[in-house]
Each structure stands twice: as C-alpha cells, then as structure tokens.
C-alpha cells in the first residue's frame, strides 16, 4: 500500500473512532430532549420533555449554583496560581511547589473529595485537632462544613485539584517566554517586581493557558463525583439533576433529563461568555493602568497572602488523604481524639470485596492508556503541521464539552447498539477521555523533536517505518511514558463515564469509593481511596523502570517526560 493510501485509511479509522461517535452522542442527547425516543414510545418530536424539565423543582437555583461554583473555582484557581507564580519565581520553594503539583494532579477527584470529607466533616480530622482545647466541643458540632448549601466545600475541593493543574500549565507557558528579559525591562522602567509581573509577564502567560482554563471551567460545571460527596443537595448542581433523571427507575424521566443535559451546554456557553466579558473588562482596566503609569505599589503586599491562601486547598487535600489512610487502619476512633485509640487491619482484610473493582480499574487503565496513546501517535503522524483540524477538534471534545452532556449522549448510542455494560464500551469511552491529555503531552514533544536525527537515518537508507520506529519513538519515549501515566490516572479517576458505560455490570474502584464514602464504612472508604492512589503509583514505577531500561541510551536525544 502506498504511503498516501495508508494515510487516508488511517485518517478514516481515526474519524470513525473519534468524530462519528461524538456526532452520534449529540444526536443521542438532542433527539430524546426533543421527545424522540422510540424505546419509550416517543416516535415524534414534542415540547413535553422541555416543559417537564423546566418544571423541575429548584431548577433556577441549580443553574445559579452551577454558574457560581464554576466561575468562582476558575477565578480563584487562576488568581492563586498566578500569585504563586509571581511570589516564588526561581526560588527553592517555587521549584518544590512545581514538583509537588504533578502527584496532586494524578490523584482522582473522588479521592480528593473523600479526603476533604474526612477532613471537614463534623467529626472530621480538622475539628478533632482543635477540640476540645480551642472549640470546647466534646461531641461533633451540630453544624456541618460539608456539604453546605452554597457549594463552598465543593469549590474548596475543586481548588485542591485545579490550582496545581493551572500552576503546572502556567509554569510550562512561562518556560517558553523570555521572562527574565521582561522583568529586567519592567525594572528599567521603574516598576516594582509585582507590577512587572502584572503588566508584562502574566498577560502573556494567560494567553497561552486559555484552553486549560476553559477545561477547568467546564470540569467545574459538569463534574459528578465530587458534588455527590461534597455538594449541596436541595437543589444539587444542574449536572446532578440530569444524571438523577437518567438513573431514575421511571424510564420516562430520561426525556426531561436529556433536555437538562442540553441545558448544561447552554449554561456552559453562558459561563464562557461571562468569563469573556470579565476578560475584556480586566484587559481594559489593565491597559488604562498601564497607560497612566500606575506603579500598583501594594500589589506585592496582596500577592503573598493570595499565594499562601492558594496553597491551602492542595495541602488540605493531602491532609485529608492522610486522614483517609488513618481511617483505613482504624479499629476505634472516638470524638474528639486526634488519633485513633486502637488500630486494626480488619478493613484491609476485606479487600477481597473490592478485588473485582480493583482488577477492572487496573486492566481498563492500562488497556485504555495504550489505545489512546496509539491513537495520538497516529494522529501526530497524520496531522502534519495542523492540516487536519477536524481531528484536533474531535480529540479535544471531551475537555471542551460538558461531561454530563457528552456521556449521556454516548450512553444512548451504546444502548441503541446493545453495547452498554460491555468491556468494549468501557475501553472505548475511557480511551476517548484519555486522548486529549495524551495529545497535549505528545504533540508538543513531537513538534520540538530534532529532525536532524531523522534526516540522518533517511540518508543512511532507512525507510519511513524504520525511521519512525527506530528513531522517532525513542526520542518521544519520555513523552510517551508520561502520556501513559497520565492516561492511567485519568482512567482511574473517571466516574460518570464508567457509571453509564458499565451499565451497572462493570464496576471500578472509583465507583466503589464514591458509594462507600456516601454511606458506607469509613474504614472501607479509606481503603478504596488508598487503592485509587495505588494504581497510578504502581504504573508510574513500572513506566520509569521500563523507560530507563529500554530507552536509557537515547537520553541525549530527548527532553521532557516523567520526573
């Protein structure tokens, strides 16, 4: 087969794997929202699903709550990450914070939520540590920090995930800028360090992180597992309302739930418009201040407290996970004792009840990561200098489309083709959500690859396949291993896709962890949270070992990867 023909076949295969299912998912959520669902007798278009959805009690409050949580999370995460970036540039503390971001990002959101729940619950570790000597409590207080009716605990938990993420992508963007030259220029103009960062450095960083920032907002709008543990319930966020409709025993509730999923897309667009308006306003204010030569001398005084406050949610998440680990080996822990009065491995002795979920998660994570990485490598070969934008748009869709809208549409498609509850459905939907992360890692590495090595190989008579397998892949090994590790972390963390694609027949450790934390044993919930962390850690160790053994001799030809 000629190279051109092979490219066309490969591109058609990728379109079939990525584009067509996404298009089908849109149909799968729009048609039921319009009343067309033959399985439930809906053979024509109708306004009734919309009327039923709009009559949902507390819908307006749910929409307002969803918008508030998403905008607050995005704004606070951006402010905190930028404050940390400007407060600790080039310092030992800054380097330590940057290295700590990666492991925190790898923690599944549900594990973070479990940790925050164990930390901030009325009988949580935080209240225990300050009782009774500070609070006077000798029993759990009547009020609860989690969940609260305004979503504050949920925002706090989201910040624990999103601040490290934005800080990491901001550091990557900063590394591609002449930051030192910009700072020297600002100093020469008489600006202080804080003003220089605000006027010259941070706006350039912001332009480079718009896509990750949009992903943060969309994730906060549509996340399911964290609100189920920490979010308000009367009413819950809009995404929870849609999922509850699909989970309801009365199948007719699926039609208004589909409309709520479509409404989620509208709310997402509204949130992005509000954010864009904020961008324009902030840009106008910054330009005016720059033209007037304002020195904003007090900015540094504000930045340091904001930076320190921005570190609180990630540190709290780590403390919460420590509390979960302690609970997993607890025999008795009575309030207000700061530590258990007796320890036991009894909960770990019941790990056999979680063994099927653990094996499912491990197998899915490895298989889906390999599949997604292979798809991305094929895309990198095909997408020569961005000539195939449709593929890039399709691969970013899971990041840019609200998860609840995408997954509910995909689940309808799986039902139509009798694929729901199958391993094929689970593998494909996990790979679909891993692909954008793998592409964000591998594509820049491929673009920065030194083409001279490939040219030398070609001059020595190596064919296209040989050049790719023997030269390009070893050079991309760090990026590939990083993509595999991130893919495993993403797969383990998937809650809603696993819930609907599995159809209740295939469980994962994340599904079990959320169920246990919602009303089960604290000890077993702690065990499940630790298992969520164990899978990415195990894969990380194996990948580091494999990379060193297999591609260690190419160390001088590559850059980036697992650290």
SSE map:
Layout lengths: L2 H31 L14 H7 L4 H29 L4 H15 L2 H12 L4 H5 L22 H24 L3 H10 L4 H16 L1 H13 L2 H6 L7 H10 L6 H38 L7 H12 L1 H17 L1 E3 L9 E2 L2 H4 L5 H28 L6 H12 L2 H14 L6 H25 L3 H9 L4 H30 L2 H6 L7 H11 L2 H30 L12
Antiparallel strand pairs: 1-2
Helix pairs in contact: 1-13, 1-17, 1-18, 1-19, 2-13, 3-7, 3-10, 3-13, 3-14, 4-7, 5-7, 5-15, 5-24, 5-25, 7-10, 7-15, 8-9, 10-13, 12-13, 13-19, 15-25, 17-20, 17-22, 17-24, 17-25, 18-20, 20-22, 21-22, 22-25, 24-25
3D structure, described in words:
This protein is mostly helical and 563 residues long. The protein folds into two domains: 1-46 and 347-563, MetI-like (MetI-like fold); 47-338, MetI-like (MetI-like fold, Orthogonal Bundle), CATH 1.10.3720.10. It is built from 25 helices and two strands. A two-stranded antiparallel ribbon has the order 1-2. The longest helix is centred in the middle third of the chain and has 38 residues, at 254-291. The chain is globular and about 65 Å long.
Task: Pick out the low-confidence regions.
Answer: 557-563
In the CATH hierarchy, the third-tier topology of the largest domain is known as MetI-like fold
In this structure, how is the largest beta sheet organized? 2 strands, antiparallel
Write the CATH architecture name of the largest domain. Orthogonal Bundle
User: How many strand units?
Assistant: 2
Number of helices: 25
Tell me the domain tally: 2
Query: What global shape is seen?
Result: globular
Structural class: mainly alpha
List the helices and strands in order: HHHHHHHHHHHHHHHEEHHHHHHHHHH
CATH class of the largest domain: Mainly Alpha
On the 0-100 scale, what is the average pLDDT? 82
Q: Classify the beta-strand content into a percent band.
A: under 5%
| Gap between N and C termini | 40 Å
The CATH superfamily of the largest domain appears as MetI-like
Q: Give the radius of gyration.
A: 25 Å
Strand order of the main beta sheet, please?
1-2
Helix content: over 70%
């Amino acid at each position: 087969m000629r190279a051109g023909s092979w490219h066309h076949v490969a591109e058609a295969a990728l379109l079939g794997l990525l584009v067509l299912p996404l298009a089908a998912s849109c149909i799968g959520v729009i048609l039921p929202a319009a009343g067309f669902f033959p399985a439930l007798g809906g053979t024509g278009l109708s306004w009734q699903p919309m009327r039923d959805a709009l009559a949902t009690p507390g819908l307006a409050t749910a929409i307002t709550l969803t918008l508030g949580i998403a905008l607050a999370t995005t704004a606070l995460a951006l402010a905190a990450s930028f404050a940390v970036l400007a407060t600790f540039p080039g310092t030992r503390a800054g380097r330590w914070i940057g290295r700590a971001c990666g492991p925190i990002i790898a923690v599944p959101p549900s594990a973070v939520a479990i940790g925050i729940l164990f930390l901030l619950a009325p009988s949580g570790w935080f209240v225990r540590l300050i009782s009774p000597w500070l609070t006077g409590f000798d029993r759990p207080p009547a009020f609860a920090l989690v969940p609260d009716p305004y979503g504050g605990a949920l925002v706090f938990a989201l910040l624990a995930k999103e601040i490290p993420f934005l800080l990491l992508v901001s550091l990557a963007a900063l590394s591609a800028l002449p930051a030192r030259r910009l700072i020297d220029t600002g100093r020469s103009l008489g600006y202080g360090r804080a003003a220089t960062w605000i006027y010259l450095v941070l706006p350039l960083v912001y332009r480079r992180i718009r896509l990750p920032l949009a992903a943060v907002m969309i994730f906060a709008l549509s996340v399911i597992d964290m609100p189920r543990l920490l979010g308000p319930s009367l009413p819950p966020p809009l995404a929870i309302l849609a999922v509850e409709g699909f989970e309801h025993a009365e199948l007719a509730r699926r039609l208004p739930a589909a409309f709520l999923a479509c409404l989620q897309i509208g709310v997402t667009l509204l949130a992005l418009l509000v954010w864009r308006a904020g961008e324009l306003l902030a840009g106008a204010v910054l330009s005016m201040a720059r033209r007037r030569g304002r020195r904003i001398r007090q900015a540094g005084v504000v930045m340091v407290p904001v930076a320190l406050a921005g570190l609180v949610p990630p540190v709290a998440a780590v403390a919460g996970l420590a509390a979960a680990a302690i609970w997993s080996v607890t025999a008795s822990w009575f309030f207000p004792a700061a530590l258990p009065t007796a320890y036991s491995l009894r909960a770990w002795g019941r790990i056999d009840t979680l063994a099927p979920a653990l094996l499912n998660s491990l197998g899915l994570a490895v298989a889906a990561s390999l599949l997604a990485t292979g798809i991305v490598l094929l895309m990198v070969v095909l997408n020569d200098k961005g000539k195939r934008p449709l593929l890039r748009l399709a691969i970013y869709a899971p990041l840019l489309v609200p998860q609840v809208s995408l997954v509910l549409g995909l689940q309808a498609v799986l039902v139509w083709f009798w694929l729901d509850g199958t391993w094929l459905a689970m593998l494909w939907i996990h790979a679909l959500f891993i692909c954008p992360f793998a592409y964000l890692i591998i594509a820049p590495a491929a673009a920065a690859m030194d083409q001279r090595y490939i040219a030398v190989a070609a001059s020595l008579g190596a064919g296209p396949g040989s050049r790719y397998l023997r030269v390009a892949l070893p050079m991309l090994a760090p990026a590939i291993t990083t993509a595999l590790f991130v893919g495993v972390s993403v797969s383990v963390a998937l809650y809603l896709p696993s819930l609907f694609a599995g159809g209740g027949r295939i469980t994962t450790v994340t599904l079990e962890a959320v169920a246990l934390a919602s009303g089960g044993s604290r000890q077993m919930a702690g065990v499940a949270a630790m298992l969520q962390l164990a899978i990415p850690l195990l894969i990380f160790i194996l990948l580091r070992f494999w990379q060193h053994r297999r591609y260690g001799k190419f160390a001088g030809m590559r850059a980036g990867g697992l650290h």
